[in-house]
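Task: fold both queries, return C-alpha cells.
Query 1:
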Amino acid sequence: MAEAVKWYIKAADQGDADAQFFPGESYYYGHGAPKNKAEALIWLQRAAARGHDEAQKLIQKATNS
C-alpha cells in the first residue's frame, strides 16, 4: 500500500482530486502511510478545493474529533 500512496501523490501533484483524496485518507487512517492528521488535512483540503465530496466529509470528521 505504501507504494500506492507514492503513485497517488505523483498524480495528486498533477491536480487530480481523487488522487489528492487518497493520500489524505491514507494519512488520516494510517493505511499505507504513517498516521498523521496534519498531513491528511493538507491533502484533503486540496481535494476538497476541487469539489471532492468525500474529502469534505473527512475534513469535517477530522476537525470535529
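Query 1 returned. Query 2:
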Amino acid sequence: MASALLDEWRKRPIWMNLMWGFCLYMTFVYMPFDIFFKPVAEDVEVWFGFSLTGWWAKATAPFHWLIYGAGAWGFWRMSRWMHPLAALYVAQIAVAMLVWNLISPNGGGWGPGLVAFAIMLVPTVALWVGRRHFRPA
C-alpha cells in the first residue's frame, strides 16, 4: 500500500501534488460540509470576484464541488484536458481575488488585491508551463 502511494505521489511534481491534495480536500471534506451542513445564512460563494450569499450561494456551491471534483480526477489521472483548463481556472481565481478586493466591503483595495493576484499567478504560470506533466490525449 505504501509503495503504491509513493508511486502515485511520484507521478507529478510536489507543487502539483499539493494542488491535487487541495482538490481532494475540497471535494471530499469542505464542499460536502459547505453544501449539507453550513447554514444558509452563513453561506458565501465567490464567482468571478462577486460574492453570493444565502440561497444564491447554496444554489451555486455544487458547481464549485464539480470543479474541485474534476480537478481531483484530472490530477489523479494526469489528464491532458487539465492543460490548459486548470491554468485558466486558476487565472480566473487570480482576477477574481483582485476584483473581490476592489468591490467587496470586506476587501482591502488595490494593495491586497494586487498581492493576492500576484500570489495566484504563481500556480497559474506553473500549470501553464507544466503541460509536459499531463498525459497525451
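Both queries returned. Flag for query 2: The beta strands are 44-47, 50-53.
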